């Protein structure tokens, strides 16, 4: 059974710092996370657009999630972006996030391919059914080629598929 997620206040997207060799800088990421948490945020959103999630492989995604969960240490929830081009990949990312201690998933419609509202509804439902974490819908049409229609969002909320909406 999914735990409830009480979101309020400030839940910023977290940038992923890189070293001069183009690799994720774990020490820099820890410093960024500490600074944000010490600043009084109410949650962390990692692996979103600001985190450059689409450029990271599963091991790199895991490093970001592990670091965020460790630094948050239960003080604030960690929301993890699981965006990808296919539902199966999103499910795999979601299972990874759950296994590493995330408190919620953040999910867009699949990107690259064009989907309609019915396909998008099914995408959200499949991910939610496969991963036992609350899902936040992320509406960013400029990146995924579809705007979540009001009816789609209402249906997802009514069915308890999503618990919140990030509108970009």
The oligomeric status of these chains comes to: single chain
CATH architecture tag: Alpha-Beta Barrel
Average predicted local confidence, pLDDT: 95
The CATH H-level superfamily is Aldolase class I
CATH class: Alpha Beta
Q: Any idea how many domains?
A: 1
* CATH fold group: TIM Barrel
Strand content: 5-15%
How many helices? The count is 6
Helical content, roughly? 40-55%
Helix and strand pattern: HEHEHEHEHHE
How would you describe this structure to a colleague?
- β1 (44-46), α2 (58-72) and β2 (78-81) form a beta-alpha-beta unit.
- This protein has 6 helices and 5 strands.
- The chain starts with 25 loop residues before the first helix and ends with a strand.
- The chain has one domain: TIM Barrel, CATH 3.20.20.70.
- By secondary structure, the chain is of the alpha/beta class.
- The model has no long low-confidence stretch (mean pLDDT 95).
- α1 runs parallel beside α2 (58-72) and α3 packs parallel to α4 (117-130).
Q: How would the blueprint of this fold be written?
A:
Blueprint (H helix, E strand, L loop, with lengths): L25 H13 L5 E3 L11 H15 L5 E4 L5 H13 L4 E4 L9 H14 L4 E5 L1 H4 L5 H9 L5 E4 L1
Parallel strand pairs: 1-2, 2-3, 3-4, 4-5
Helix pairs in contact: 1-2, 3-4
Short description:
The protein is an alpha/beta fold. It has helices at residues 26-38, 58-72, 87-99, 117-130, 141-144, 150-158; strands spanning 44-46, 78-81, 104-107, 135-139, 164-167. The protein has a single domain (26-167), classed as Aldolase class I (TIM Barrel, Alpha-Beta Barrel), CATH 3.20.20.
């Amino acid at each position: 059974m999914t735990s409830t997620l009480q979101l309020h206040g400030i839940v910023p997207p977290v940038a992923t710092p890189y070293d001069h060799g183009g690799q994720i800088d774990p020490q820099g990421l820890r410093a960024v996370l500490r600074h944000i948490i010490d600043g009084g945020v109410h949650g962390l959103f990692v692996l979103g657009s600001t985190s450059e999630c689409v450029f990271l492989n599963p091991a790199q995604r895991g490093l970001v999630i592990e670091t965020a969960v460790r630094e948050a240490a239960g003080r604030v929830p960690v929301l993890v972006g699981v965006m990808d081009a296919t539902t199966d990949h999103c499910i795999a990312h979601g299972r990874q996030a759950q296994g590493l201690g995330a408190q919620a998933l953040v999910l867009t419609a699949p990107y690259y391919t064009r989907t309609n509202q019915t396909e998008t509804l099914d995408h959200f439902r499949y991910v939610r059914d496969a991963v036992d974490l609350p899902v936040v819908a992320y509406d960013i049409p400029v990146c995924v080629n579809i705007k979540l229609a009001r009816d789609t969002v209402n249906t997802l909320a009514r069915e308890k598929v999503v618990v919140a909406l990030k509108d970009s």
